[in-house]
Structure formats: C-alpha cells, structure tokens
C-alpha cells in the first residue's frame, strides 16, 4: 500500500463546475500538506501549502485538511479550461525534507 | 525573479553511457531536491541538500546514481552506466526558510 493514495482519474467536468480532488494517507506523522498543478511536459507548480487541519482559501482554490481522518482535499470553484492539468497532492513529515506525492489526478475542464 | 532552471531539457543516451543533469536553484534558496517522475512510479524523491549538512541520499535507487552541490548553489545529478529503466523526467526543486518547494521544468531522459 502506498503512503499517499490519489485517484488518478481522468476526471472530466464542464466549465464552471466545482471540482473536488482528494488524497488519503496512512502515516499520521505527516504535518505539511501541499497541492501542485502540473501541465503537460512542465514542472509541478505549487498551488496550496497548509500545515494544520481546516480550510485554506486562495481565490478559486480551497485546500482542506482533516488529520483525524488522514484525508486532504482541493476544491476548485468556477473551473476553467485553463485548469485542465494533473493535480498532485504532496506531504511531508517536517519542515525540511522530502515530499511524498500521490499519483496525481488528471483533470479536464470542457468548454 | 528567475525560477529553478534545469539543463538539458531533453537527453537521449545509449544504454551503458553516463549522463549528467544540471540544476540551478532559485537564488538564495538553501535547500535543493532531486525527484524522478515516471509513468509507473509517479514522482519519487531521490536526494536532498540543505546548507552545509550531509545530504539525505535515502531515495537514490542504486549506487549508479550520485549528486553533488557546489558552492551551495548549482547541483549535478550523475547517472553512471545508464539502464532503460532510468528513462524518466528528472525534476529539481529548491526552497528557502519558508520551506515551500519550487520545481524546475525537468530533464526528460531517454535511454535507448
């Protein structure tokens, strides 16, 4: 079993839809949680960074962390075709150190 | 300012050859990371440099892989005697005290 599980999709939604992306993890020691967006043949781009349970909002994006359930989510409101990409969750044990990634979810937003 | 840069962007090499991949981190970032991304394995950690501390090499898959960081800035990842299973995208990231890791565009390595 992988430390971080993420449904690879693909996920296809119409423009304007609310998108929910999720990851579960097995190691309760993870303290820091991130979401990255990766366009085809590009490097991952950091979207959200959180370190506590609860919600963090940035524009159309909301990151949610539930440490008791070992579950994190990314919500995208009013999705746009430009949001079409692969979304990777990542987490780590401490401030410094390696990231453990989920497999990534491929999202397609249709006009 | 400038982001993380990597070179070359693409590298095709024959099985058994050695390759060197270069990473230029964001200026002032003290930490530098190498990851590998492949279809079957996703994105995996390889090695981590933090300041003058000994690097965390726990993710290197074999002794054919090595990396160094000169002057606390540029890093080179070396793969000796390349194998077909080494074909992947090699990603470099750097971070400052704020600890958010920023990735470069990657080097796509193909071993024929």
* Number of separate strands of chain A: 11
Estimate the strand proportion of chain A: over 45%
Following the backbone from N to C, one meets helices and strands of chain B in this order, namely EEEEEEEEEE
Tally of contiguous helical segments of chain A: 0
CA-based shape of chain B? globular
Measured between the Cα atoms of the first and last residue of chain A, the distance is 37 Å
| Helix vs. strand class of chain B | mainly beta
The greatest interface here is: A-B, 22 and 23 residues
Kindly state the mean pLDDT of chain B as a whole number?
94
Task: Enumerate the spans of chain A where pLDDT stays under 50 for 5 or more consecutive residues.
Answer: none
Oligomer: heterodimer
User: Unreliable stretches of chain B, pLDDT < 50, 5 or more residues?
Assistant: none
Please state the average pLDDT score of chain A. 94
Number of alpha- plus pi-helical segments of chain B: 0
Strand content of chain B: over 45%
- Radius of gyration of chain B from the CA trace? 13 Å
Concise overview:
Chain A contains no helices and 11 strands. Chain A has 111 residues and is mostly beta strands. In chain A, strand 7 (61-66) and strand 8 form a beta hairpin.
Describe the structure.
The complex is a heterodimer of chains A (111) and B (112). The mean pLDDT of chain A is 94. In chain A, the strands form 2 sheets. In chain A, strands 2, 4, 5, 9, 10 and 11 form a 6-stranded mixed sheet that branches. Chain A has 111 residues and is mostly beta strands. Chain A is built from no helices and 11 strands. With 112 residues, chain B is mostly beta strands. In chain B, strands 2, 4, 5, 8, 9 and 10 form a 6-stranded mixed sheet that branches. A 4-stranded antiparallel sheet of chain B has the order 1-3-7-6, with no helix packed on it. The A-B interface holds A 32, 34, 36, 41-46, 49, 88, 90, 95-104 and B 4, 31, 33, 35, 42-45, 48, 50, 56, 58-59, 91, 99-106, 108.
């Amino acid at each position: 079993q992988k430390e971080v599980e993420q449904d690879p999709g693909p996920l296809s939604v119409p423009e304007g839809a609310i998108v929910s992306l999720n990851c579960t993890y097995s190691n309760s020691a993870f303290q820091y949680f991130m979401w990255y967006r990766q366009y085809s043949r590009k490097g991952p781009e950091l979207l959200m960074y959180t370190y506590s349970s609860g919600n963090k909002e940035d524009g159309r994006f909301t990151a949610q962390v539930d440490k008791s359930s070992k579950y994190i989510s990314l919500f995208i409101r009013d999705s746009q075709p430009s949001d079409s990409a692969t979304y990777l969750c990542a987490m780590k044990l401490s401030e410094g150190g390696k990231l453990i990634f989920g497999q990534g979810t491929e999202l397609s937003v249709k006009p | 300012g400038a982001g993380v840069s990597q070179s070359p962007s693409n590298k095709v090499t024959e099985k058994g050859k050695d390759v060197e991949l270069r990473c230029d981190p964001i200026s002032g970032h003290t930490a530098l990371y190498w990851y590998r991304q492949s279809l079957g394995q996703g994105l995996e950690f390889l090695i981590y440099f933090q300041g003058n501390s000994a690097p965390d090499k726990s993710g290197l898959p074999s002794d054919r892989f090595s990396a160094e960081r000169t002057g606390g800035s540029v890093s080179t990842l070396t793969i000796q005697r390349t194998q077909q299973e080494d074909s992947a995208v090699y990603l470099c990231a750097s971070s400052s005290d704020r600890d958010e890791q920023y990735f470069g565009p990657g080097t796509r390595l193909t071993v024929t």
